[in-house]
Specification:
The protein has a 9-stranded antiparallel beta sheet with strand order 1-2-3-4-9-8-5-7-6. The radius of gyration is 22 Å and the shape is globular. It has helices spanning 3-37, 151-154, 180-186, 197-220, and strands at 44-49, 57-62, 65-74, 83-90, 100-104, 120-122, 132-136, 159-165, 168-177. It has one domain (3-220). Helix content is 30%, strand content 26%.
Length: 232
């Protein structure tokens, strides 16, 4: 084959490959961006940020407090399909002196919990879910009756983690699982996440209801008793 012709073929092939890759990256980034871009009107003063082809982060205000909504990709959990978690954080002071983490169905590969930073595990009342790890930093003493407003979320099968701290609350709930057939075939997760404005509103309202309930419980509790202690 003529050397000049071979060079042309190599150059053209390279150009086509670069264009295909660029198109693929743009398509993936656009698809991921749309997960939160389509619901940004749920929050006031919304701002959407995205790095490369990562899932975006939505920030803004909701019911008078700053919120952050993000998507977490979890491919580490063993014996389960990879999962997309929706993270909803509301920064509004809570009557706590330290953080309390409530993790459902705990395992050694959880990526959505403070994990080893919260090494002290606490027993829970019978009304709480059976497969839950309530943990605090060293010295933490959560008064669980005051935190019972979290129970509706903890009994929701989509919930993975609820983190409470003096500065606010965070909910981790399931958004989507990888497609089984595609994952079995190539062992790479493929997601088709869908989040409606109604679903995001419901998640935000649930977090608001939980924090309001915690405030009400603390107000009726005898003064001077802390609900948790330890470092943030």
């Amino acid at each position: 084959m003529n050397v000049a012709l071979l060079t042309v073929i190599v150059v053209v092939t390279g150009i086509l490959w670069v264009r295909m890759q660029t198109s693929h990256v743009r398509r993936v980034a656009g698809q991921r961006r749309s997960v939160l871009a389509d619901v940004r009107n749920v929050v006031d003063r919304s701002e959407l940020t995205q790095r490369g082809i990562d899932y975006p982060v939505l920030t803004g205000d909701y019911r008078g407090a700053p919120v952050t909504i993000a998507v977490i990709v979890d491919t580490l959990t063993l014996r389960e399909l990879p999962t997309l978690w929706l993270s909803v954080t509301r920064r509004h002071p809570l009557p706590l002196t330290g953080p309390v983490d409530m993790l459902l169905r705990p395992s050694s590969t959880d990526i959505v919990s403070p994990g080893e930073r919260f090494p002290v595990q606490h027993p829970v009342p019978p009304a709480w879910p059976a497969h839950i790890r309530v943990a605090t930093p060293l010295g933490g003493t959560p008064h669980l009756p005051e935190l019972s407003a979290a129970l509706p979320l903890l009994h929701d099968t989509r919930t993975k983690d609820v983190l409470l701290s003096p500065t606010g609350a965070r909910l981790i709930t399931r958004l989507a699982r990888a497609e089984l057939g595609h994952y079995r075939l190539v062992r790479r997760p493929k997601f088709k996440p869908q989040l409606s404005a109604e679903e995001l509103t419901a998640a935000l309202d649930a977090v608001c209801a939980m924090t309001e309930g915690i405030h009400e419980a603390a107000a009726t509790h005898r003064p001077g008793r802390s609900t948790a202690s330890g470092g943030a």
